[in-house]
Amino acid sequence: MVVGRVFAAASLVCILVSACAQPPVTPIPDSTRRTITSISGDISGIKNSDTSQIGARGSTEGGQRGAAQGVATMTSSGNLLGLLLAPVGAAVGGAKGAAEAQSEDVVDATRAELRLAMQDTDFAEDLRARLAASTIAGDIVISSMTAGASTAAQQSATNVSAGGAPSHIIAVEYRLAIFHQAHVNPKIALIAQVTAQVQSPDRKQMLHKATWTYCGQPYDFVQMAANNAALLRGQINSAAAVLAEAIPYDLFVSKVPRPLKGYCMDFSDLPSGIGTKAPGLI
Length: 282
Fold this sequence. Notes:
The protein is α/β, with parallel strands linked by helices. The chain has 2 domains: about 5-55 and about 105-265, Rossmann fold (3-Layer(aba) Sandwich), CATH 3.40.50; about 55-100, no CATH class. Helix content is about 40%, strand content about 20%.
């Protein structure tokens, strides 16, 4: 499966290599953790709200996508028989796709609702507020969380000028996109990827780095867009809640790497119980 068929956002390609290297989320080594008493953090990132390729728009596009799906199914084994049957797969898949595709009006409305949900929801502020209020890191105090790249260093300097100890910095960068494949009626889900860099108070040393991948439960794309895209908005909110707990817990409390299932992470061990097992997307 090519990357373009897995994500609409090329910014999330790095997810596809995470399973091939060391675990993307590991606890901070004890020797480093003992030097950290407080954290100032900043959050920045991007959301990919392009929904223009989600779902087949009418019977013509449905036939095209259905034919492509039929060929892919027949040739997935890579053997000669599959190649010989590819035209059959194209014909059957094309007819099926044309018959099952949603109307142009339905797809246009669906894409619009999904796009607006991605644009309207303030994931950065939700994640910032939840991290700022978190106490899960125990004796490590989260002194401040700000929005905007490199703003945490200003807060650390403020703490020093007020007579406090300099805070270590945690720079949080997020990427949000909607997972979908080039199917006639695809199942879609939110994917939120967050990378945290723990840095020295002067920001000159990166002491630790971890990357979390939250995957929402897949739903039919029309269903996901129903009721003002309530399901998608709910997944964005859930991603912020889960990641705001997982980031300090995994870095400062847990003793084991965050488990993976494919390219998604299992958050079912979080103390609050809000995390879920990783869904199977690909």
